[in-house]
Amino acid sequence: MIPDHLPHRIWQELARATQDRHHGWRTPVLATVGADQQPNARTVVLRQAREPVGELAFFTDGRSPKVAELQAQPQAVLVFWSARLRWQLRVAARCEVLTDGPEVDTAWARVGQSAAAGDYLTAQPPGQPWAEGELEPVPASTGAHHLAVVRARVQTMDWLALGLDGQHRRARIEGQALTWLTP
Ligand SMILES: Cc1cc2nc3c(=O)[nH]c(=O)nc-3n(C[C@H](O)[C@H](O)[C@H](O)COP(=O)(O)O)c2cc1C
Which range marks the domain in which residue 100 is found? Predict the structure, then answer.
């Protein structure tokens, strides 16, 4: 791997993951600081990877606990693993939650037509105590969705490649600057 090419290769794979449901990097784990100041983490779907601006994005319910966590502490980590590439990527990012505006409208135009639309139309916020039969999604036609777009501005990346021969490689990437590390 030529060092100069690695950051671009990583962004290429991130972009592929937004298109390919089977890409290992499609579903990273998002780690945040919880309201109780304890670590918290969950899986999300990677929806955008924009190399020119160094941003990733995922969608969520604007009422979900992770949104409150990110609003209180925008610093987060996304962890990706691809078994095919044998690459782990840890991304430190600063997150911004968008609950309205053109980006959210564009995202809803996409998600609103899909099977996932119902996830963003529930009357009750995610994470509430729930009894079977209580939760009725409001009709999509009201437009009352709760989709939020979370933009994650990438600060640093920690890339680890597991070699089949036991020769692992690791690099820290900040913008276009790359530093090789001992794995
Ligand atoms: C494969 C997979 C993909 C998921 N994708 C998303 C997602 O894109 N956005 C999201 O908000 N939750 C997603 N979830 C659910 C979250 O992992 C989590 O359970 C939920 O959002 C509540 O998180 P919170 O209580 O920390 O806010 C996904 C779960 C799985 C298993």
Answer: 3-126+141-181
